[in-house]
User: Fold this.
Amino acid sequence: MKDNDSATATATIAVSARDAGGQGTTKSAASVGLDAPTTPAAARGALVGRGALLAALGVAAFSLTFPGTAWALEGMGPWTVVMLRSVLAAVVAGGALAVFRVRLPERRHWAGIAVVAGGVVLGFPLLTTLALETSTTSHAAVVVGLLPLTTAACSAVRTGVRPSRTFWIASLVGAAVVIGFAVQQSGGAPGRSDLLLFAALLVCAAGYTEGGRLARHMPGWQVIGWALVLVLPVTVAGAALALSTEPLQLTVHSVGGLLWLAFGSQFLGLVVWYRGMAAIGIHKASQLQLAQPLLTLIWSVLLLGERLPPAAPAAALAVLACIAVTQRARG
Assistant:
């Protein structure tokens, strides 16, 4: 994680490529370490492929977040889980920032970092953890399947990117599949957990959008690193208070779930996710998350013993088809 190993560099190496904010960029192939004979089209293809792979790795990491939360809740209270995961991740991120002597971000970036902190460090983890006290991971996963659409909409408003009509149609179809699946599973009566999950969608979409935008100016690991450090005073105080008021039982599941949330979901997953967003654009990266609910369903069966809903295979095929369309649609 070198300081100059920037997501910005990753996002701007292709000739005439479109970055996460919709701005055109022009760089030579030599500036990315590619061989001189490489054509601009080949360089752009390599950039897009690498960005899609990084974003997909982020989705894979996030798909384990709900099962990890369910494990952690077996031995800890919801506030303890949320605060401790952030504190542990901040220790790693802050240590990396110190070791590599990373300079403080420019003043103009701190507002965006605060949005990332509020959305993906505090807001989304807290709201989804509270929801999972009364909701199954499989149900929560399909509701949060609306995140790609909300992220794309937030990106369109914030960055000025205007995806094509085909992109929006495929996104809406994918969202409709997710909504139908959720309604069918819940019996058509959304409860308190659903309201918490819908609120989580909004704050997370804002955090993803700002993080993807900031990753054009600094490496992805620094984006989430500074966000974690920014709220460290709050999370340390919150962890101390939660540990003094909530029950704590250290088991293999509770500790393992917490460690994954801290290092897998909260830090490493967001590192590759923001880099991927910077490379292929926020709106396209967000649509890869249409696969996340289905991956979480698989983990809920394998790790938690939950029964896979009968409609899941059909929903999986429909959603994957929508992903294919959104990735081919021109922004």
Remarks:
- The chain has a mean pLDDT of 83.
